[in-house]
Amino acid sequence: QVQLVESGGGLVQPGGSLRLSCAASGTIFNNYLMGWYRQAPGKQRELVAAVTNGGVTNYVDSVKGRFTISRDSAKNTVNLQMNILKPEDTAVYYCNAYRWHNGVPENYWGPGTQVTVSS
């Protein structure tokens, strides 16, 4: 079982920055692909960024060059640095841990943290 808790959300003006953090517990952190998803009102949840245990990263096109995902295996955390924020980045952001184990997918979610970009 994996427990995930996000922090760092809030209200920020367009062009500003926020740093989200996700603390993982209850498992071997390095066994999982870690990611950040977001869901805006009336829209489907979408993958924002992901990072493998080897540090390979992937981003949705709309955040490339603005967001950076990183993981710290010593602290069991995954972070999302968000710069040059836009109103369309407004959403609830969720931390995700995923792996395929013994033929079964394991997928865990944090409760989410609200990010609002508005003047």
Structure write-up:
The protein is an all-beta fold. It is 0% helix and 55% strand. The chain has no helices and eleven strands. The strands form two sheets. Strands 2, 4, 5, 6, 9, 10 and 11 form a seven-stranded mixed beta sheet that branches. A four-stranded antiparallel beta sheet has the order 1-3-8-7, with no helix packed on it. 30% of the residues are buried. The model has no long low-confidence stretch (mean pLDDT 95).
Write the layout of secondary structure elements.
Layout: E1 3-7, E2 10-12, E3 18-25, E4 33-39, E5 46-51, E6 57-59, E7 67-72, E8 77-82, E9 91-101, E10 104-109, E11 113-117
Parallel strand pairs: 2-11
Antiparallel strand pairs: 1-3, 3-8, 4-5, 4-9, 5-6, 7-8, 9-10, 9-11
- Write down the Rg: 14 Å
Which whole number gives the mean pLDDT?
A: 95
Helix content: under 10%
Rough outline: globular
Profile the largest sheet.
Answer: 7 strands, mixed
The quaternary state of the protein chains shown equals single chain
| Strand percentage | over 45%
Number of helices: 0
**How many beta-strand runs?**
11
Distance between the termini: 40 Å
Spans of at least 5 consecutive residues with low confidence: none
| SSE ordering | EEEEEEEEEEE
SS content category? mainly beta
